[in-house]
């Protein structure tokens, strides 16, 4: 209930930047690991 | 007349005149609109059939805030996300992400991310809100509608994948999207091991719930780079692209295939009868209610109807129907989820924002109800009310009478008591004759089922 009340008094946009910065860090890890996987795959395929 | 749902956007609104759809654009949106047109973004999106076309109307109304008036391409049937099957919903999510990616290349971004901005035309999703694009300011790629995207698209599709594919019905109650707190509670633990679900839902919710209004003051001027933003969009796109509907079978999913052998002659006879009944008939819009995999919808759509709305209560049937339409490029059959005993209501502000299904899908000139009446009666709807529904047709009805002695009826009504009322063939004929002329009837082979071709009596 406390969480509900506090969140009602927060602008929906609040924290948008923090959240996206953190999420972007995860997304970058995913993007990097995909690239790495492709590089390794291509190396073994001899491309 | 102004559209009841077009009031949230300060940049403009939709209105109707003489059956045409218009969009009024306010001066406050001038800079964004000019960039959308002059940068080539509009052209690319329209060329790729991702955005509705518009043409500028020269005469301007007596409205000082109006910058432009557009005549907008009409979408024949308006549907909402709680009426879509899994793959329809998935295609809508992917379209939003695709448009965001293209917009970024032109220096623009979507300012909102809601499935109400998407409709289906020829079984392809299309973006309908020309005013959703805004310029990226100061090279900061923080996506304003990110939370909205998670609550309107990502949360619901994750729940559809991991909990129940028909859970998108909850969007009727949550017009602004499913709260992340709720999504997080409903998602099973195994789904949270995925990095996309973990970061965009679990972590997102955790951060949001522990925020107070002061905690973000220090980072308000932080900037998210284009690469980082595109990484987020790519991650979301890659995740959604791989999502597949659960393999759990539904009550009706295999019905036509499973029973094909036992009823082969019946189906062949029914197909022939439908074609012979409709031989000379041409309809504008047909509702095929309880269409299952869409077999009869396709049949009628070939020569007898310009458009067929293929309704079924079962998401799996609608999904299969949609995928078949896509694969076979059937553009005039539109599969959609409908529970006839509880159709989509009008929702939103003053119940005017999103119309009920019957407000949006105005009277067809043909209603088909094949093998449906016993299910309607089974759901507690009296037979007379079912006849009332049939009168929604402006002209004709094809309805299959199922006798109580039918094997399927015996299963359904096994435990009913003496009070239970089921119409005999005579009672059925008498009841429909009050509202319709009976044009033709035919008893279907190997059954006692009777197909009726009815025409509405003009008052």
Explain how this protein is built.
- The complex is a heterodimer of chains A (47) and B (459).
- The relative contact order of chain A is 0.07.
- With 47 residues, chain A is mostly helical.
- Chain A starts with a helix and ends with a helix.
- Chain A is rod-shaped and about 50 Å long.
- Helix content of chain A is 79%, strand content 0%.
- Chain B has 459 residues and is α/β, with parallel strands linked by helices.
- In chain B, strands 11-10-9-12-13-15-14 form a 7-stranded mixed beta sheet, with helices on both faces. A 4-stranded antiparallel beta sheet of chain B has the order 1-2-4-3, with no helix packed on it. In chain B, strands 5-8 form a two-stranded antiparallel sheet.
- In chain B, helix 4 runs parallel beside helix 5.
- The radius of gyration of chain B is 25 Å and the shape is globular.
């Amino acid at each position: 209930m406390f969480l509900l009340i506090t969140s009602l008094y927060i602008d929906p946009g609040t924290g948008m930047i923090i959240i996206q910065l953190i999420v972007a860090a995860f997304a970058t890890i995913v993007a990097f690991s995909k690239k790495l996987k492709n590089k390794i795959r291509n190396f073994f395929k001899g491309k | 007349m102004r559209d009841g749902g077009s009031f949230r956007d300060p940049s403009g609104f939709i209105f109707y005149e003489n059956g045409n759809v218009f969009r009024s654009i306010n001066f406050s949106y001038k800079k964004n609109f000019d960039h959308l047109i002059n940068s080539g973004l509009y052209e690319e999106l329209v060329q790729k059939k991702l955005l509705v076309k518009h043409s500028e109307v020269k005469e301007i109304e007596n409205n000082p805030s109006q910058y432009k008036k557009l005549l907008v391409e009409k979408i024949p049937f308006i549907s909402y996300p709680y009426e879509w099957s899994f793959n329809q919903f998935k295609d809508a999510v992917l379209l939003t992400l695709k448009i965001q990616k293209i917009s970024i290349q032109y220096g623009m971004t979507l300012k909102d991310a809601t499935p109400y901005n998407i409709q289906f035309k020829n079984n392809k999703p299309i973006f309908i809100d020309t005013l959703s694009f805004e310029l990226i300011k100061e090279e900061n790629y923080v996506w304003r509608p990110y939370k909205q995207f998670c609550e309107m698209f990502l949360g619901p599709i994750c729940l559809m994948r991991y909990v129940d594919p028909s859970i998108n019905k909850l969007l009727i109650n949550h017009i602004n999207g499913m709260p992340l707190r709720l999504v997080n509670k409903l998602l099973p633990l195994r789904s949270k091991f995925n990095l996309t679900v973990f970061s965009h839902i679990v972590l997102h919710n955790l951060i949001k719930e522990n925020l107070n209004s002061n905690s973000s003051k220090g980072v308000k001027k932080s900037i998210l780079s284009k690469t980082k933003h595109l990484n987020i969009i790519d991650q979301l796109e890659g995740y959604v692209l791989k999502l597949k509907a659960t393999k759990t079978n539904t009550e009706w999913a295999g019905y036509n295939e499973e029973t094909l052998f036992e009823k082969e002659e019946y189906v062949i006879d029914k197909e022939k009868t439908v074609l012979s009944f409709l031989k000379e008939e041409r309809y504008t819009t047909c509702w095929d209610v309880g269409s299952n995999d869409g077999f009869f919808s396709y049949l009628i759509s070939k020569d007898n109807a310009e458009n067929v709305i293929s309704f079924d209560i079962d998401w799996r049937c609608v999904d299969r129907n949609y995928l078949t339409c896509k694969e076979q490029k059937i553009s005039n059959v539109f599969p959609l989820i409908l529970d006839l005993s509880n159709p989509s209501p009008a929702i939103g502000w003053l119940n005017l924002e999103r119309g009920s299904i019957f407000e949006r899908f105005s009277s067809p000139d043909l209603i088909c109800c094949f093998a449906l009446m016993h299910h309607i009666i089974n759901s507690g709807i009296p037979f007379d009310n079912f006849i009332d529904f049939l009168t929604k047709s402006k002209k004709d009805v094809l309805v299959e009478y199922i006798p109580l002695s039918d094997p399927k009826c015996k299963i359904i009504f096994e435990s009913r008591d003496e009070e239970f009322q089921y119409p005999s063939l005579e009672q059925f004929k008498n009841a429909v004759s009050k509202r319709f002329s009976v044009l033709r009837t035919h008893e279907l082979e190997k059954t006692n089922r009777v197909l009726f071709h009815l025409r509405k009596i003009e008052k």
